[in-house]
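Sample entry follows:

_____
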Amino acid sequence: MSEWFQIAVIGFIVLTIGWHAMRTARANPQDTGTLGQQLSGVEARLGKVEGEVRRLDNDAASKADVKRVEKELAAVRTELAAIGKSAASREATLDHVKEQVDRMLDIIMKRGL
């Protein structure tokens, strides 16, 4: 084969590959610039979401915190129940003392002292 014929075949192959590459590139609706912009937008939103998740994790109570608060609440409830019982017994005592004071006042008033 002649040298010119080989060069022509190589040229035809290169042009065919180039033409095919350009044709498939035009068939792609998104170019890399648009995809890059969209990707950077997604990355920015992802960064915001990650920041929000970190903030929520930092603000959220751990299981140990919840259990500690529940124990403290149970202790306060027990103490409150004891105070309620004490108040009820004091009320009964105060009622009894009131009756006695009323009797004493009746006696004093009747005798005119």
Remarks:
- The chain has a mean pLDDT of 82.
- The radius of gyration is 46 Å.
